[in-house]
Amino acid sequence: MTKTAIYPGSFDPITYGHIDLMKRAAKIFKKVIVAVADNSSKDNFFTLKERVMLIKRVTADLDNIEVDSYEGLSIDYVRSKGSYVIIRGVRMISDFEYEFQMALTNRRLSKNVETIFLMPNESYSYLSSKLIKEAAFLGADISCFVPKFVAAAIKKKLLKKK
Predict the structure, then answer these.
(1) CATH topology of domain 4-124
(2) What distance in Å separates the CA atoms of residue 112 and residue 84, rounded to the nearest whole number?
(3) Would you put residue 147 in left (φ > 0), alpha (ψ -120 to 50) or beta?
(4) pLDDT of residue 119
(5) CA 149/CA 119 separation, integer angstroms
(6) 106-152: per-residue pLDDT in tens?
(7) Taking a C-beta distance cutoff of 8 angstroms, is the pair 14, 55 a contact?
(8) Dihedral sign from CA coordinates of 47, 51, 52, 56
(9) Domain range summary for the chain, segments of one domain joined by +
(10) Considering the chain, what is the average pLDDT of its residues?
């Protein structure tokens, strides 16, 4: 039985939905590694270093959550950490099809790795990093979707881009 679960993602930016899933996973597993993906094919808003820093700040008071980064396949990262559990969030039925395909692909790549789907609190079920970035770009107050320091970091970055 594993004591460590991996929660991979781009977290660009981290939202209250992500944080909710981290806390839920932390109640189930002795240790949760939030693994920030370095995917150079994605046009990320925040750099990898910035995303890791923001998540470390968010999780500073959660003893059993570790923040790390990786590049390449999530399945390879999971195995490198000696784990066999991937945590994935499913907000809506529309997420399920993609997540289901990814879970089956990962299972094919490694029969020993299992994917566990967690649903966020219903108050976060509509949140997505993409929508939050779009709202911020259009001048909306996004502090109800992300921690205040994340909202400030987004605003600061947007001001630099203008």
Answers:
(1) Rossmann fold (3.40.50)
(2) 6
(3) beta
(4) 86
(5) 25
(6) 888 889 999 999 988 888 777 788 889 899 999 999 999 999 999 99
(7) yes
(8) positive
(9) 4-124
(10) 90
The residue type at 23: K
Looking at residue 98, its pLDDT comes to 79
pLDDT band for position 154 (50/70/90)? Answer: very high
- DSSP bridge pairs for 73: none
Phi/psi class of residue 68: alpha, beta or left (left: φ > 0; alpha: ψ in -120 to 50)? beta
Catalytically active residues are 18, 42, 91, 129
Which tokens sit at 77?
Answer: 């990262």
Per-residue b/e over 77-101, b at no fewer than 16 CB within 10 Å?
A: bbbebebbbbbbbbbeeebeeebee
Q: Which two tokens stand for residue 53?
A: 């820093």
For 1-19, what is each residue's pLDDT tens digit? 569 999 999 999 999 999 9
The predicted model gives 24-53 an average pLDDT of: 92
Task: Work out the burial of residue 131: count CB atoms within 10 Å of its CB; fewer than 13 is exposed, 13-18 middle, 19 or more buried.
Answer: middle
Look up residue 98 and give its two tokens.
Answer: 């993609």
